[in-house]
Amino acid sequence: MLFRKDPCGIICIVLTYAMLLHCLYAILFVIIIPLLNESLYGTLHALITCTFISLCIFSHARAAYFDPGFVPLPKKGIDFSDVKMNDNNKDNSDGWTICNRCDTYRPARSHHCRICKRCVRRLDHHCPWINNCVGEFNQKYFILFLFYIGVTSIYVFSFVIWSLIIFSQKSDSLIVHSIILCIESCLFGLFVVTIFVDQVQSILNDRSLIDTLKLDENSRMTPQILPPARVLLRKVFGPGPILLWLLPCDLKKSNETLDLQNMHNV
């Protein structure tokens, strides 16, 4: 498991868990138990809330604490001085390049993260909210985290507004927590939905954020010949029905990682 001692990332993770736990506490102990303790609807809303928040936390953990796709470092140092003197030799026919910071070969579309100080396969960006890079191996979980946060925000906002309208007797605690939940749902929900749309768009365009930034204006405007959207999405979410894509577990069976590691061990 990975845990990066980046102050910004640690603060963002603490805020994320604090908001999720506050949401769980307020829904269960401020709204449901006092007002819907003997109602079947109360049990149903409690199960829905716990399920959504559990999926948020599990997706976040898979994105934050596991390998995003680090390019393995060679066990023995390799001298690239002759290659670096000639820029034309930095790319081969398969798109592999040499990282000047890691001093290692890296696959096509791999980029160096200045915070992690490692090259990451299909690096999109370094996200402080997961205190980790978003790369080939954890982009699915990052997108699922955004998706479940967005769904949870919409559900919590609707449930809080409904409870304020239905129940005439409102305690001070209920009003205060309801206001905080509405603010959290609106701000956090809009934020993650925006990033979620951007992530899906990058998958459908088959270009990460860094890939797009490194292109010149002419290359960005040049139309691409892309595979079908389902094929592009399967590269990230794995095989199987679409419903299985919503599970924060690994559905991909690939030997690329082992092949890459064996290549560096030679």
UniProtKB/TrEMBL annotation:
UniProt keyword Transmembrane helix present: yes
Topological relation to the membrane, as annotated: Multi-pass membrane protein
Highest taxon, organism lineage: Eukaryota
Locations listed in the record: Membrane
GO CC annotations on file: membrane
TM regions (residue ranges): 12-33, 39-58, 141-168, 174-197
Tagged with keyword Signal: no
Reaction catalyzed: L-cysteinyl-[protein] + hexadecanoyl-CoA = S-hexadecanoyl-L-cysteinyl-[protein] + CoA
Domain Palmitoyltransferase DHHC: 95-211
Protein name: Palmitoyltransferase
